[in-house]
Design a protein that fits this description.
Layout: H1 6-12, H2 16-42, H3 46-62, H4 66-80, H5 86-111
Helix pairs in contact: 2-3, 2-5, 3-4, 4-5
Length: 113
């Protein structure tokens, strides 16, 4: 398991509906954001890469995915920085994708979504 519900549990203060709604939003939004990010990387639309990585970052942070958050931050920074950062972004993206897809599968299994 590469996610942790510690942050969500702290925010929820025992409200299981809140926890499930946060997870539902993650499962609803993040897969599409990930697809859009991959498409933006493929089309070298670095402004969009920056925006999508920035959007994914708090979602993975909320699930305690510190390494994944760090990779999203690196991609976000590279997308915002002028110059040809495409190769660096392309090198980092597979780790982000792998972790996010793994957590999506784990959450669907763990919470019967």
């Amino acid at each position: 398991m590469i996610y942790s519900l510690d942050k969500i549990n702290e925010m929820a203060e025992g409200d299981t509906d809140f926890i499930e709604s946060v997870i539902a939003v993650f499962l609803d939004e993040v897969p599409q954001d990930l697809k859009n990010l991959e498409a933006a990387i493929d089309s070298k639309d670095y402004e969009k890469v920056y925006k999508l990585a920035h959007k994914i970052k708090p979602n993975v942070d909320l699930l305690g995915m510190e390494q994944t958050r760090a990779v999203a931050l690196e991609i976000e920074t590279l997308g915002k920085t002028p110059g040809d950062n495409g190769p660096a972004i392309e090198q980092k993206f597979p780790a982000l994708k792998k972790d996010v897809l793994q957590v999506i599968a784990e959450l669907k299994n763990d919470f019967n979504f």
